[in-house]
């Protein structure tokens, strides 16, 4: 962690700065996947209890974001895409971010336990710990496989949502976890291909920095095939069905084609067109996960009308 301990006295932190600490864009993915996990879980949940559970899962995700920004303030100040975050921009003191993150983490876990069960609360607590300690404080600055292992933190929400309803873990919830876990490497590495200098300047051992773009392209291709297998496997569980499977096959075919296109590229190709292919694959990856989890909801709706499921 850096020695960033003070900011200008004339700072003018607003409500939006504290919201930004919670990484609302990341939180939206947390909320959506957790909600899907909750809705497709067998047995159902009281709507009010479900709303409360989602609220505190979101707060737990926000707590992770605040603690991540507190610890990473030094490298955020060196990267173009993060330099305007509240701490390096001088809007929020590191101690405020730490206090906010710890407070929200404690509240979210306790309240989720009171609203649902210890399995869901335990998973949320472990998710926060994993993201902040295992990924942010350790893996991110130590190994080029940081994204592969650290991606687990962002993959737990559907399991938490499922556990909030059932109090357990099942094959379907594990595969929802695995879908997000396998998606994370090709998603972030396609981004890293065209922001390599940022990670290098910040001293983050991203694969593009430690092993180069050719190795990164190989890894993207390999993980995309793993991702496709997981996506199809999820379609064969109780939460999948024909509609999901058709969309999954199409989406994964497109993703694989994009990964192959990236794999065929050279550094000269990428520099010549400003990483056009890499940017397209990254943008598609943003849509990919929402479509897959959205189709699980479509299958749920069709099943209730007797038109879905296997």
UniProtKB/TrEMBL annotation:
InterPro entries: Protohaem_IX_farnesylTrfase, UbiA_prenyltransferase, UbiA_prenylTrfase_CS. Its main location: membrane. Converts heme B (protoheme IX) to heme O by substitution of the vinyl group on carbon 2 of heme B porphyrin ring with a hydroxyethyl farnesyl side group. It comes from Maritimibacter dapengensis. Carbon 2 of the heme B porphyrin ring is defined according to the Fischer nomenclature. The chain crosses the membrane at residues 26-45, 51-71, 92-114, 120-139, 146-165, 171-195, 220-238, 244-263, 284-307. CDD domains: PT_UbiA_Cox10. Pathway: Porphyrin-containing compound metabolism; heme O biosynthesis; heme O from protoheme: step 1/1. It is found in: Cell membrane. It catalyses: heme b + (2E,6E)-farnesyl diphosphate + H2O = Fe(II)-heme o + diphosphate. PANTHER family: 4-HYDROXYBENZOATE SOLANESYLTRANSFERASE, PROTOHEME IX FARNESYLTRANSFERASE, MITOCHONDRIAL. This is Protoheme IX farnesyltransferase. Interacts with CtaA. Keywords: Cell membrane, Heme biosynthesis, Membrane, Transferase, Transmembrane, Transmembrane helix. It is a multi-pass membrane protein. NCBIfam families: cyoE_ctaB (TIGR01473), PRK04375.1-2 (NF003349).
